[in-house]
Write a structure and sequence with these properties.
The chain is 36% helix and 23% strand. The longest helix has 19 residues, at 209-227. It is of the alpha/beta class and 257 residues long. Strand 8 and strand 9 (130-133) form a beta hairpin.
Length: 257
């Protein structure tokens, strides 16, 4: 079984990305998809370290970056169905045991446990298009597979899934992962959780107010696609997120922006 890694960048220097060194030393085939709009030396750095570099020629979003990487793997390496592709954000810390444990997994979709400043951010419970966090790692590991979803970073997927699937390129950044899980549920494919913990600095946790406001404006576009005709759920989720931002930044004006 061969393992491929996809690392997506946005306006970061590759040699400053914590996950990059861990990935190039892991023995996997690494594809770097660069959404950067700033000038960088990322292509040179990637090639010097044996990684494949794919420029997206601007910020094209996650779904287009994932689709390009997956297509590149299929066309260039002609992978076996049981090979795995793993997706990583540029702020994810990957323990050495991740790849050792991954090679022991049987599932078509494998989720590690991912923690951030607020606790366990993946896997999550996804029911009726509503996402809720588990209280702790033990609850996440014990949950039924049929109710699980998870974030992209650290998610591993069998290449056979991508024989007839691509990510929805109308979605730019958020809820791409949950949309993927919902599509897989239709095919009776459910994620497995492995007991390995990754740490992540999630931008929504630590951004300043203006950055958070801009990011949320982008997120609402993705949420409209995710919820589709479920408008009451869309408005419910958006209001909760508005309220959370208003409380966090002590700015009630954020409720109406």
């Amino acid at each position: 079984m061969r393992i491929y890694g996809v690392l997506v960048l946005y306006n970061r220097f590759l040699n400053e990305v914590r996950a990059f060194e861990q990935l190039i030393n892991s023995g996997i085939t690494l594809i770097v998809c660069d959404n950067s709009t700033d000038e960088t030396n990322n292509e040179e750095t990637a090639k010097q370290n044996g990684a494949v570099y794919l420029s997206m020629h601007g910020n094209r979003g996650l779904s287009k970056a994932y689709n390009r990487a997956v297509t590149y793997i299929l066309e260039t390496f002609q992978p076996q169905d049981e090979d795995l592709v793993c997706f990583f954000d540029d702020d994810t810390l990957i323990p050495t045991e991740y790849f050792h444990r991954l090679s022991e997994q049987d599932g078509d979709i494998v989720l590690p446990v991912v923690s951030d400043a607020n606790g366990i951010m993946s896997p999550v419970k996804l029911r009726n298009k509503i996402v809720t966090r588990f209280k702790n790692k033990e609850a996440a590991l014990a949950a039924k597979r049929t109710c699980l979803s998870g974030i992209n970073s650290g998610m591993a997927v069998r290449m056979k899934i991508f024989r007839d699937f691509r990510y929805n390129e109308q979605m730019f950044l958020d809820y791409i992962d949950h949309m993927f899980i919902m599509e897989m549920r239709k095919k009776n494919r459910y994620p497995h959780v492995m007991d390995v913990e990754l740490a992540q600095r999630f931008s929504a946790v630590e951004d300043d107010k203006e950055t958070a406001r801009r990011r949320f404006a982008m997120q609402k576009k993705d949420l409209r696609i995710f919820y589709g005709s479920s408008k009451p759920k869309y408005f419910y989720v958006v209001f909760k997120k508005h309220l959370k931002l208003a409380v966090k930044y002590r700015d009630l004006g954020m409720l109406i922006r």
